[in-house]
Request: fold
Amino acid sequence: MNYQLTETPEGIALTLPSQVKWRAYQIDFGQGPLRYRFEHLQGRNELIAKAIGWKKGDSFQVFDTTAGLGREAFLLAALGCQVTLFERHTAIATLLKDGLQRAMTDPTLANIIERMKLIESCAIEYLNNNTLPDLPDVIYCDPMFEARTKSAAVKKEMQILQSVVGSDADASQLVEISLKFAKKRVVVKRAHAAPTLKSNPDLVFKARSHRFDVYIKT
Reply:
């Protein structure tokens, strides 16, 4: 895990010494692709909204068990969900906390960020060791898989995550425990060519570079 965290005037940034041509990376919810997605949010037509079973007016409680850089959690919060983000890797959690704090100063984003709560912990350990006052409606899992897109922006983010996080060897265990705690659904993001982490999903929603395997609680 060859990376460096640096505190800059703009916030905390991560660099990979192996990628000398890259600028230091920060999580910024107010600019770039995330801002664009927020400004062009399609509500119920968003694929992730379909995957979690969301419709206008719903205020789901969602556990994002693999928060990473916070992209999906931000979109879910923008839809109106209350999202608890779990990130067990300190460097990524530090980046994410910094990005959330800076976003709170943006009046166009503050109400969204208020719906996002970050917990620096392994979701498996947290679920096993804590009594939850309320179970989440949906648990979302996005274990690491190899990036297949040629998009430079996505490739950079995936390489950052892979350099810091590596692979999630306990992904199947995460899905199993999620099924015990979710009230309505467990949604698992996978690459198209990747095998399911649990057989026979009830629904599958396909995007260009990935799919969502959905397991519905009965």
Q: What stands out?
A: The beta strands are 4-8, 11-15, 61-64, 82-86, 116-119, 138-141, 185-191, 203-206, 210-216.
